[in-house]
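tool_call predict_complex ligand=iron/sulfur cluster
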Amino acid sequence: MKSTLQQIRPDDQSSLISWYHDNHRDLPWRRTQDPYKIWISEVMLQQTTVVTVLPYYERFLKAFPNIKKLAQAPLEKVLELWSGLGYYSRARNLHKAAQALHQNGGFPQTATELEQLPGFGPYTSRAVATFAFQEKVGVLDGNVIRVLCRRYGLSVQHWIPKEKQVLQKIADDLAQVKTPDILNQALMELGATLCTPQNPSCLLCPWVSRCQARQSSTIALLPLKKPRATFETWVWQPQVAIQKGKVALVQNPDLPFLKGQWVFPGPIQKMKSKPARFDVKHGITKYDIYIQVRKKKSLSSQDVKWVPLDQVKKINPTSLIQKILEHSQK
Ligand code: SF4
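tool_result ok
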């Protein structure tokens, strides 16, 4: 792979760090070097905005102030405190990883070791390693990808792992400074506040005079856009049986989404087009789900668990299950 070192100007790092010192937002996870707190914030911030995460972060740490408390908590309680943040597999993996960390006696200090833990992908491992332990590794999230593609004028298909390596190499090269944690925070902050997807505030940017996308008028074209995933259409007929204030759920046997979670039983089928009639429509990642609710008086299956209606949110807090339940109680 072509070295990227020559693309980095010697004062790229210093100008970025000095801009960060003067301009960054004061966020609670930036005031700590506790790997546990940093880890929680990083997992919450994936796919979710800072403003949304703030109250969740405070509540979560109040309930689970350390690895031990999280590892020993029942999964239901963890999911309950996650309720509303979406992407619940993150909460399940967090719980699993906390148990592994607790058993191992705490956090390893390098990204390579962290990546062996459940739910620790390259991004989370690098973020924890650099923010908590000052490891000199670059952290590549969507904001950083955008900044690097524009600053260095790179038409990289960043969703393809081999091509993403070009950006990872630049991020790693940039992180070879005394304060890699600050450098990484600065790159993320630049992407979040100035180098935004639309209408970036280039005149305030520390790299304005050297930004290759700006010089070649290609800001709107970079980073390249990932081709849209093809969506799948599914029709699900959940059977909703409510008796004496309890509803019947099964541990997901067939649905391609919400794997391993407690859901309503009922057949599901992949279709070529959407059905003429449906009660609820819901989207999860690439799945467009059309739901035809089937109300039942009873259900006789050994696998069924009868859950009090006011406990369903604890067992499965996803909005899909809530929507179906609300519809069936109309
Ligand atoms: S000059 Fe503009 S496009 Fe270039 S890195 Fe700065 S904010 Fe982004």
